[in-house]
């Protein structure tokens, strides 16, 4: 992690290292609030987490994605993944691959743009919520 910061022109401070460790161990992108919950406030204050995330984003170390629920989440730049988000409970599950890469190349070729990234967010209803909704619907029919 220290080398990653240095490669991007940043000093390896305790705060940055803590935020990166938390992002590295997470299985899904994290909001600032998620990180604040998991990082010792004696090491990094809540306001510092927001500042550090901004610095890391501007340096290209993390990706910031504003989800459809308007919450910004962060993940390490080299962790290119897409997710499906349950619109009922907020559960987020990674998908297996990125179907956009070939499309990016085609768009770049046709437009002359250098594509630097993309955002894809699938939204649906997870199996647990589908079951809960079906149960709820059945209970209303019985009354």
Automatic annotation (TrEMBL):
UniProt keyword Membrane present: no
Subcellular location per the Swiss-Prot or TrEMBL entry: Cytoplasm
Stored Gene3D superfamilies: 3.30.1490.190, Winged helix-like DNA-binding domain superfamily/Winged helix DNA-binding domain
Pfam families per UniProt: FUR
Subunit: Homodimer.
Identification of the protein by name: Fur family transcriptional regulator
Superkingdom of source: Bacteria
Organism of provenance: Peptoniphilus equinus
Family matches, as SUPFAM superfamilies: Winged helix' DNA-binding domain (SSF46785)
Annotated keywords: Cytoplasm, DNA-binding, Metal-binding, Repressor, Transcription, Transcription regulation, Zinc
InterPro entries: FUR, Fur_C, WH-like_DNA-bd_sf, WH_DNA-bd_sf
